Amino acid sequence: MGGWRRIILPIVRVVLVAAIAVALVKIAFFPDASAESTPAEASASIEEPVVTAQVSSLENALTVPASVRADTAVDAKATLQGTVSELTVTVGQKVAAGERIGAVRQETPVDPVTRVAPDGTETVVPQKPKVVAEAIVAPAAGTISALSVIQKQDVAVGDVVATITPDAFVVQGSLKPKDLYRLSSIPGEASVSLKGGPGEFTCTSLRIATPAASGDGSAANGADPSAGAAGGDGASTALTCRVPVEVRVFSGLTGALTIQAGSAENVVTLPTTAVKGNADSGSVWVQNAEGGAEERPVKLGITDGVQIQIVEGIAEGDTVYEFVPGTDVTDPESTGCALQPDGTEVCEDGLVP
Predict the structure, then answer these.
(1) Domain 74-166 adopts which CATH fold?
(2) Class of 63-69+169-210+234-262 per CATH?
(3) Which stretches does the entry tag as region Disordered (predicted)?
C-alpha cells in the first residue's frame, strides 16, 4: 500500500499532466483541418419585386386641401362716357343683382340751324344738345364697399363707379400642377368637408382659377390674388367653387375639396410605382428571356393616385417590375401622410389633429 502512494500515484499524475499539456498544445498550434471555416458565400440573390396586371375598377376622386373665403369683390363700371348724373347708393348699403345704383348722362352738341325769313333775313337758331343716359347697375348682389366717383364727375367707358362685396362665400382648393393631369375635364361641382363646420355639402360652379393681376388691380377671372400662395409651390393654381346660400360658413374655415373626375369599370390596372409617366402614355418594364429588364410602352387612362389604368401595351396577367428601374422607391415629396375627404390627415404614426 505504501508503494502505491510513493511510486504508482505520482507516475499517474505525471502522465495525466503530460496528456493535458499535449492536448492544449495541439489545440493551440495544430487545429483540426476540418474545423477551419471557409469564407462564407452568398446563398441567395436579390430579386426585383414584380406585380401582375389585374382587372379592377378605378374611381378618380381627387382630394385637395381647401379653405373658405368671402367671394371676390366685383366692380360696377360705367358703360357710357359722360357725367355722373345720379348716385342712389351709399357705402354699406345692400343691393340686389341688376339693381340701379346710378346713371351717366352724355350730352353731344348739335350744330345750330340757320333759318331764312321771306325777306331774306337769316336767323341762327341754337339747337339743344343730344342727350343720352345709361343706368349703372350692380353686377351682383352684395354690399357697396366703395364708391369711386361723385355726382357731376366725368367718367369714361370702363371707369369703376362702385365696388360690391358679394354676400357669398367660395371654397378654394390648392392644386398641384401635376394633379391637373387627373382633371381631363372639370365637373360642375365638388364635395366639401370642413373641420369644425357643417356636414359635407356640395359646392357649385367649380372652376380652375389662375390668378393674374388685371389692369384695374383686381384678380383675373374673379380669383383671389393670394390664391397662388395657397398652393405653396409658386404655381398659382387654384380650384374655386361657390358655397350654397343655405350653407352657413365663415371665412378661414379649412378642410378638403373632393372632385369626382371620372371612373372606369373592369379595366387593366397596375400600381403607379410600376409605370413611368402618369398621363396619356408611359412605360413599364417586363423581364425578357435573358432575365433582364425590357422597357415596354403603354397607353394610360385614369388614375386614383395609387393604381393607374393601362389602356394598351399590357394585358391582364402580365408580370411587370413593381418599381421603375433606376428610381428611388421612396417618394421624396411624401410626408407619410394622406389627406382624407373630411379634411384630416392620417400619417404612418397616427391621426394628425
Answers:
(1) OB fold (Dihydrolipoamide Acetyltransferase, E2P) (2.40.50)
(2) mainly beta
(3) 214-233
